[in-house]
Design brief:
The structure is a homodimer.
Chain A: E1 2-6, H1 10-21, E2 25-30, H2 36-45, E3 49-53, H3 54-60, E4 63-66, H4 73-80, H5 82-85, E5 89-92, E6 97-98, E7 106-107, H6 115-122, E8 127-130, H7 137-141, E9 152-156, H8 159-172, E10 179-181, H9 188-193, H10 195-205, E11 210-216
Parallel strand pairs in A: 1-2, 1-4, 2-3, 4-5, 5-8, 9-10
Antiparallel strand pairs in A: 6-7, 8-9
Chain lengths: 218, 218
């Protein structure tokens, strides 16, 4: 598949790298065509890896990952272009973490809305699926690294888009039954508001290499 | 121990009932001395169970549970009286769930603060420990009902207060190692902001009888 990854940070690099390893044609998108991190990534990732502007990668992609900060994601999608994104699945991995008041960060968008919802509202022709924002980038692309079953949560308004994303997640190593569908895109509030707890759990756990599992009644 | 439970709802009743079963002297507090729910609870719970006003139960208690809605908790503690609470451990179980705009509820306090923090700030002589707000009342008092190990999260500024609460939680059935200390009371933001995810998980799980477990690297 031709897949665009918007964002050149750790999350974008981890997802783009995994997608290349799985045999996809992956284009990393950034603000400028000569972005240094994207150039370095594409050169190191080898055949199947390219880079271009947000609009350049969105135009030719069949599916798009949003791996930018949730604070700027709407702006990034405008740069990518509504016409380039229309009808496509957008996997929104973002969190609107605001470090401007120090650590721990707060969320610049939350509670009565979410990044996922705002993107879906601003781009009604895009099939937004929120996923993967609740785990570290290592766990995203290598869920088997943890010592036992654990869960990933997705949501979105388009059932077929969610089904496509579950297939892709399965190729990442997420067992189909481990992915819980929380319903429409408004569930992105819960997925994004979980992140402050995730950040605090890094203390007692001793790092970011963990996830949560839902444990039901016996 | 003489324990006050502020609040007459399902959470207050579940916790008060468990404390009576464990042999504590439990007083349920409410706005008025003749509160119907508190009267019924005390009559049904038998010896060791009484009820009175918030101030009445706080005055004689050695430890206090806040089981009121987070929206009114500060007001309830003012009614209980700072002098009646001073020096005591307050286990804050509350969530500031605002249903005024319908379901799912939003949080009336979140992100840059939390109910736990606001109570600690308003009552600096009280030893606030946030705990139990992340699970259903059945799981709170009977954690063994779930099919496997799972975790509870606590936080607070006073280490000895947290230690007392861990002892009490162990008597509820929470294994000591299952209770993760997230640090100071500012971690209450994460604990309270997790609740919107918990509410959405009720869909795929099929009810509220569940919890989460932290799964670490293998």
């Amino acid at each position: 598949m031709r897949i665009a990854v918007l964002g050149t940070g750790e999350v974008g690099s981890a997802i783009a790298g995994k997608l290349v390893a799985l045999g996809h044609q992956v284009a990393m998108g950034s603000r400028t065509a000569d972005n240094e991190r994207a150039s370095r990534w594409a050169a190191a990732a080898g055949p199947g890896a390219t880079h271009a502007t947000f609009a350049g990668v969105a135009e030719t992609a069949e599916l798009v990952f949003n791996c930018t900060s949730g604070i700027v994601s709407a702006e990034v999608l405008h740069a990518a272009g509504a016409q380039n994104l229309a009808g496509k699945v957008l996997v929104d991995v973002s969190n609107a973490l605001d470090f401007s008041r120090g650590r721990p960060p707060t969320l610049s968008i939350c509670n009565t809305t979410s990044v996922g919802e705002q993107l879906q509202e601003a781009f009604p022709d895009v099939r937004v699926v929120k996923a993967l924002n609740t785990v570290n980038n290592q766990v995203m692309v290598d869920p088997g690294r943890l010592a036992g079953p654990h869960n990933l949560f997705i949501c979105g308004n388009d059932a077929s888009a969610k089904s496509e994303v579950v297939d892709l997640l399965e190729s990442f190593g997420w067992p189909r039954g481990a992915v819980l569908d929380l319903g429409d895109i408004t569930a992105a509030r819960g997925l994004e508001m979980y992140v402050p707890l995730w950040l605090r759990l890094m203390g007692p756990v001793g790092g970011a290499d963990f996830n949560i599992a839902v444990v039901r009644a016996g």
